[in-house]
Amino acid sequence: MRKTIRSLWLKLTWAFNPGTIKEAYRARIKNFFLHWFPPKVTKRSFSWSYSFWLGTISAVLFLITLVTGVILMFIYIPSTVRAYWSIEDIEFITHYGWLLRYSHRWAGHLMVVVVFLHMMRVFYTAAYRETPGRDSHRYVNWVVGVILLLATLFLAFTGYLLPWDQLSMWAVTVATGIGRTTPIVGETLYRMLVGGTTIDQETLIRFYTFHCIAVPLVVILLISYHLWRIRKDGGLASTVHYDVPLDEPISEAEDTMRVLAVPAVPRRVFLVTIATWIVVLIATLLFRAPLLEPATQAWTPNPAKAPWYFLWLQELISFTTIKIGHFVVNGGFVGGVFIPGVLFIVLAVWPFLDNSPPDSTGIWFHRTRLWQNVLFTIICLTIVFLILFSYYCRGPYWHVYWPWNRPEIPGRF
Amino acid sequence: MLRRKFLSFIGKFVVVSAAVGGGIYSLARALVPSLLYEPSARVDLGDPAAYPEGVTFISDRRMFVVREGNKFHAISAVCTHLGCTVHNVPLVQKKDIKEDGKILQESWEFACPCHGSKYYGDGVNYAGPAPKPLPNWFMYISSLTGHLVVDMSKQVNRDFRVTV
C-alpha cells in the first residue's frame, strides 16, 4: 500500500524532480504546468535581486482575489437594500467570512502597490527595450502593462462601492463626479458608468458586473498575453538572449549565464506564491477592513476621502479649479482627468521617447538614463507625497492639520 | 484596373468599419440608460407653515429650504464641484458680505466636506474648488393643496422668492 502511494506520488511529481538534464527537458514538455517555461532562462531573469519577482507577486495576488472573490460572490447580494447587511453577515455570521473579506481586500490593496512597484522596476531597468540584435518587441508588453495597471486601479475602485457604506458611497460619488466634468463626453460616460443621475441600485449592479465579470475577464486575458509575450521577447530584458536558434552555436560565456528552467523556476514561483499568501494572511489577521454606516445620499461624512490610491487625484482636484474672469474650468477635469490622462499617455509611449543607447537595456539605473530616472522618480515621489499628505493632514472641510491633532468628526449614528 | 482595386478597397473598408463601428456603438449605447427610474424632479414639501425661520435641510432630495418671514426659496445641496452634499454651517456672529455692489447680512454658510468648497448663505461660491454657485430651484404654492412644491428641473435666479 505504502509502496503504491509512493510510486503514485513519484509519478505525479517526477517532472519537478528530474534526475538528469535530459529528463528535465522532457519534463518541461510533458507537464502542462511546466510547458509555460522556456528550456533555459538567463540567470538575470531568474535572480531575486534583479526583478524582485514583482510581476509574479502581482499575479499571485490577483489569484488570491480571484479565489476569495468567487466565494464572496456566493454570499454577497448586490442590492442597495441588502448589500450592506450581507457584508455585515460575511463579517460576523459566515464562518471564516471575515477571513475571506479581509484577504480579498488586502490582496487587492497590495496588488495596487505591487503592480505600481513592478512598473517602477521595469522603468528603472529600461526593460521595455529590445535585446540588442534580437527580434523582440518589449514595448508591446510595456503598453499592455500600463493597461493592466489601469485595470488594477479600476478593479480596486469598483470593488470599493460594493459594501454600500458611507465610505463607498462618497468615494464613488467623487470619482464618478470627476469623469462627469469632462467636456462633451463627460455626461454620457457618467450615465454609462452610473446608470442614471445618482448613485443607486443601477450603479451598484453595474459596478458589481464590472468588478466580478467584465474587468477580471479582461485582466485574465491581458495577463496571459503579458506572460506569453515575455517568452516571445526572450525572457526578462537583458543583453543576453536565451532562445538561441539551433543553427547558431552557443558561446561558452553565454551558456554559463543560463540555467535550466525546470525545476528551478517553478520552485521559485512556488516559493513566491507561498510567501505572498503568508503576507496577505498576516495582514488579514492584524488589520480589520473598515465598514462604516450604511450608505446615504443625504449626508456626506466630513471629510470624505477617496480610496488611498486615488487620494493624489483628490488632492489635485481640490486646488486645480482655474478661474480667469468668468471663464471657469472645474478642477475635477484639470486634476482628475487632464493631468492623470497626460501622465498615463506619456507613460504608455515612453519606450518610443527613450533614446538611450541599447546597452542600457536591463541595467538598473544606467547612467545614460539619469535624467529620465530623475524625472520619473520626482513624479512617483510627488504622487506618494500627495497621497500621504492627503491621508494624514486633511481633516474636516478639507482643512490642513498636523496628523497628531487632526479632529475626528464622529459618524452620524 | 487601378480604379477597380481602389473601389474594391473602399468597399471592403466601408463594410468592415460599418460592421465594427455599428457593433461597438450598439454595445456602448445599450449601457447609456434610456429611461431613468428616479424620483420626480417635482417635490411636494408639505405645509409651508411647518418650516422654521432659516434653513431646513431636505435630506432625501438634497436641498435646503430657506424661510425668511413669509418668503421661501430652495437651494440645491449638491456641491457644484464633484457632487458631495454640502453642510449648512450656522454662523455664531452675523457676517456682512459684499455681492454685486450690495451688502448682504448672512447668519449661515454652506461648506463642502469633500474638497473644502465654501458658499455664502445665498449659495454663491467664494472659496475652494467649486466652479459655480449652488443653483436655486423653482418653487410654487400648489393651488390644490396649499403645499410648497419645488421643481428641481427648473433653475431660477438667486433673488427668486415665493411669498406665502
What would you say this structure looks like, in words?
The complex is a heterodimer of chains A (about 425) and B (about 160). By secondary structure, chain A is mainly alpha-helical. Chain A is about 60% helix and about 5% strand. In chain A, α7 (about 95-125) packs across α13 (about 265-285). The relative contact order of chain A is 0.13. In chain B, the strands form two sheets. In chain B, strands 1, 2, 3, 4, 9, 10 and 11 form a seven-stranded antiparallel sheet that branches. A four-stranded antiparallel sheet of chain B has the order 5-6-7-8, with no helix packed on it. The N and C termini of chain B lie far apart (about 85 Å). The mean pLDDT of chain B is about 90. The chains are: A mainly alpha (about 425), B alpha+beta (about 160). At the A-B interface, α9 and α10 of A face loops of B.
User: Given the structure, what is the number of helices of chain A?
Assistant: 16
E-strand count of chain A: 4
Radius of gyration from the alpha-carbon trace of chain B, in angstroms: 25 Å
Distance between the termini of chain B: 83 Å
The fraction of residues in strands of chain B falls at 35-45%
Strand order of the largest sheet of chain A: 1-2
Low-confidence stretches of chain A: none
Backbone CA Rg of chain A: 24 Å
The percent of residues in helical segments of chain A reads: 55-70%
Series of secondary-structure elements of chain B, N-terminal to C-terminal: HEEEEEEEEEEE
Helix content of chain B: 10-25%
Order of helices and strands of chain A: HHEHHHHHHHHHHEHHEEHH
> What ranges of chain B have pLDDT less than 50 throughout 5 or more consecutive residues?
none
Task: Put the structure in a nutshell.
The complex is a heterodimer of chains A (413) and B (164). With 413 residues, chain A is mainly alpha-helical.
Label this structure with key terms:
heterodimer; A: mainly alpha; two-stranded antiparallel ribbon; 4 strands; B: 164 residues; alpha+beta; seven-stranded antiparallel β-sheet; 18% helix; 40% strand; elongated
